[in-house]
Design a protein that fits this description.
This protein is an all-alpha fold. It has helices at about 10-25, 30-55, 60-85. The chain is elongated.
Length: about 90
């Protein structure tokens, strides 16, 4: 019988880091919007995969959940900012 592999925090940590980067990089004019548009959904996707993998109470579930929440907040801030024109060059 094969031993069970140790759980890896890779997806959870990448989700958390990309969520934090997505939210903080929005302050960079022009480029920040595009980079954040990639990193926010990536954080939600990877965090969701980790949450699905850990099911009920894995050791990295809270980290993955934090990545999903921060990524979702980043997406909402991005959508609201683009819709209101906050990230346009004329607004600065």
């Amino acid at each position: 019988m094969k031993p069970m592999p140790k759980p890896s925090p890779a997806l959870a940590v990448v989700s958390l880091v990309s969520g934090i980067l997505s939210l903080t990089i929005l302050i960079i004019p022009f480029v920040g919007v595009f980079v954040s548009a990639l990193l926010g959904p990536l954080a939600v996707l990877l965090g969701g995969l980790e949450l699905k993998k850990t099911n009920e109470g894995g050791p990295y579930r809270k980290i993955a959940l934090s990545g999903v929440v921060i990524g979702a907040i980043s997406i909402v801030v991005l959508i609201v900012g683009v819709a209101t024109g906050t990230f346009s060059e004329r607004a600065r």
